[in-house]
Please model this.
Amino acid sequence: MLKWGVAALAVLASVFVGLASWDGLLAEGSVADPYVVHQVRIERDGFGVPHIFGKSDADVSYGLAMAHAEDDFANIEEVVAAVRGRAGAITGEAGAQLDFARGLLQPEVDAARTYGTLSADTRAVVEGYARGLNDWVKAHPSAPRVRGLFPVNGQDILTGFLLRSPFFIGLDKPLAALVKGEPVPRDSGPADERGSNAFAVSAARSEDGVTRLIVNSHQPWEGGVSWWEVVVHSDAGWDFAGALFPGSPYPLLGHNQNLGWANTVNRPDLVDVYKLEVDAGGENYRFDGEWRPLEARRIWLRVKMGPIVLPVPRTVYRSVHGPVLKNDRGYFAIRYAGFGEAGQMEQYYRLNKARDFEEWQEAMALQGVAGTNFVYADAKGHVAMIYNAKFPKRAEGFDWKGVLPGDTSKALWTEYEPYAAYPKVIDPASGWVGNANNTPFLSTAPADELDPAAFPAEWGIETYVTNRAWRYQTLFGELNGPISRAALLRIKFDKGYDRRGWAGRWMAKVMAVEDPALAEAQALLATWDWSQDGEGAADALAANILGKGARAGYGGLPLPDAAVELRAAVAELEATFGTLSPPLGDYQRLRRGRVDLPVFGGPDALRAIYAPVAADGRRVGNNGDGFMMVIEWPTGAAVRSQSIHQFGAATVRARSVHYNDQAALFVAEKWKPVVLAGASPE
Model:
């Protein structure tokens, strides 16, 4: 009996060791691109922001990778792990969900097929970036948390783009529903209450003859889609200041000497779901009166559970439409704009290098970026809001917001509308443009707006209006004369809420609750000035209530039970502070390392702060206003710009002074200088 017990323990121990090590032992990186010696110099300014100098653009992207890995390797590694289908080996179940998406979408197959369609100079930049990551890992062999992720090559970098970009155009909503076996939502609107702002004012409308651009993307403050700032300079003419996500070989927004842009996520209907007719054996599907084989593949998800990594099998399918999921409701195919195309890597690089509005629009006409608004400004005084979306050419007669029949080619689109047809507002008479994740038909002054009737219903252009859009429309409308820099920044940092939006509906529901025990809280809320500026006694209670309703209200979902949420708000504030009216600055905080500061604003305010409740009962920011820029082109003078990051340049290096050295400026709504070659900071 004892011998059997020892033997059993030995077997269990060997199984445990095997599960703990099998993933790393079996894994291996890609074949690296041919090695090139890069001539690069990296200098950091007083805030730790890297300035990358190189002879060629590829030299610069190599140095960019080295600098970014120094500041943020943990997030870069997670991007690479997702490219390999091993995100679950690092982050557990959450990563395994991304691995499932990778197995379903097969971005690595599309990357191998399309990589050669990129121009030679774009491939050189992408491969330079991959070499930089490889060399950094060689110099820091203990940094990776799992084995076999490196080396990477240019195709891997493209794979990362192909894997992540569909989720910026709304793939997350139908995919999540199909995985859960739920009905596919008809709404192509916002996934949650987070978003972005962007504004541009022309020299003709500004008070001092300066064209201005506000870059104000809202992203998570940490993780794989958090911003990292960089300035690049090459002898080949690449001079650009801006920010990027882990895994990108170049900035995704910002400015060069002559022009710049900001992005805000849009949500037109760019994803279609098809119900397939499948035979009893699940091996064939009907299409145009014939049976076709349904491709089936087994994928293995690597899921970290404590110290071990467990292999979990899943089966995914593919039809002529695209990836296919099976659930209790049947077999469903997914098709989305930009499916399997590499053009986004080409387009962003060309935008970086554009010298004027004509070249910039030529890059936009590549239609590589499937979706996201572009708000543009330049040295010549042009301003524009481009509702960029790769609209499928869809046939009339189908309910394109619903589930489509998968048995006919009449419902299967294969082409896209041209860039020339996109909704655009260019150089309006009002002299200003803006977007805050809202319908493109509220992009400027009312007299200059686009006509919704000019665009087909099959395009699925969103009609949603965010609180931020209501606010900027009101605030710009109040400026009858020239627009000063100070006035533009007041709009950007506005903390108000409009009663016409979700906040108005939600607060009305809260105030309508009939419960004597909540009368004191309602009386306090009645004094709220509809601004989260920290100047009123009701701001903290309003912050709590707004946080409870924002996600449902912004997403167009049924609002929660107001009585339940108001009772919870009262209990939470009294438990933490002993009062319903603590100062908002005591209740809402920015925390980073030893830095703990008050921060004002709120969900879906132009000064966007998203702050879940922490263990001590306070709201602590984790999303919203983060990396921002104000870019200015004075008439006849060099560009000047300023920026700010909610934390600092050293995004994961907790021991660095630059881990949180911008936080105090950020909460004070101040800026730091950006120095571009030939430019002068204000």
Notes: The longest strand covers residues 623-634.
